[in-house]
Amino acid sequence: MVDHGDPGQEALQALLQGGPHPSASLYLKYHRHIQVSPAGVPLVFTDGSVPLAVFKETHPMIILANETTSRSGGRTLLLPGETTKVTYTIATEISKKVTTSLIERVKEAAAKGCCFDNIAADNVFVEDEDGTVKLDGVQELLNLNDDDLEDGLELNFASTADIIDNGIYDGNPPPDIAHLTGLMRTDPSASVFYDTHASLVPMLNFPYLIKEYHDHCKNVIPKPVFCRILRKLPHVSHWRSTVRSNSLLKVTLDYQHGYPVPENTSSRQRELYPDQERALTELGYGEAQLQQRKLTEDQLDLIDSLKLFNFMRNRPAHRMETNHLRVVRQNHLARSSELVTKVRFPLWLCKLQHQLHKRRKLKKVNVKALFYTRGGK
User: Fold this and answer.
1) Residue 133 main-chain phi, psi, to 5 deg
2) How many C-alpha atoms does 191 have within 13 Å on its Cβ side?
3) Of the residues 76, 88, 138, 348, which has the maximum number of CB atoms within 10 A of its CB?
4) Which pTM value belongs to this model?
């Protein structure tokens, strides 16, 4: 990662929105780079694209964020509401655009029935303004049989994952990006959503992506499938303490009285209480299944995951920045809540998306317009 000093709030907003770092004194609008053809003829390009390494000099790919950051001798709140000293790694919006475009280049080759002989960071060139990637110095392999094409594409995606991890994020990808590159190395079937992976959604569209998947899970897919997905989601253990250690998120949690799990009261409990019945009904349990005396441990864990699921969906509607202003007197934007939620629960949406894919329920949710793909922004 290029060291651009310690950004304050203005710099943070510029980085998240994808522009060049405010401290950049020179902005490369055009860069002249030379390659040599197989015949040894110099090829000169002046199309506005620059090598990835040059692009990163004025466009940071990640920022490190924590409770406070020094600025002009003072201390400026960077992540609102933080009460811990944890430092988080956050992908900038321009880095998401570059990553998305790079993946699209490989998928375009796959759509044509071909792959590349090899892809490395030196082959990646980026257009200055919008992060569009072009690949130079790579050869398309045509007329391959199905097995060779499949093997070639798997190698291409693995190489692309290496470029993302090391070329774009300097060996320190944020956790959600690392989830994406992990899939690119291990799950070829997930290539259908590599470029619309949850880690790449623009920050302002983060709550809308949650809403789309939430509504699909709640209203479309069968309840037994929904329950299996809930059992696989991360961050469930101690999720309330994770929320309460950020005062901004805590306000939204308290708005629903902490999203409590309806616990069994004693070993002598003779029937389910109304709130226990409501929770099981929301999970798809029928009338006959509600005749049990008390909740099992598995059901309690399942309900806890459901509570987190509902919190993630309700949080945008219940975010209380106005109320929070009266508490800490900080000028927070709505996006502050999205940013804090994403760094506190970095894998939740990624794992939800992958679970939907594994159960063949993802393709029925059209979310491409929320992303930086050609079909999106």
Assistant:
1) -100, 140
2) 22
3) 348
4) 0.85
